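User: quick one, fold this
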Amino acid sequence: MARLVSAGGRPRRTRKRKEARRWLREAQGIVLLAGAGFIALALATSDPGRPPAAQQGPAGPVGTW
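Assistant:
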């Protein structure tokens, strides 16, 4: 009796699994871009000459830290 064998001896991956990974990668990319934007904003608005407690910026206290 004949058997179906995939190339390379590995089981075939389903399309559904690839789609789930794609959405995960896209969500990770969006989170990383948002984080990079927040860090850029915090660095652009900080003033190293002022103490951290006296600084106010659009990034808030987390950006000042």
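User: anything notable?
Assistant: The chain has a mean pLDDT of 77.
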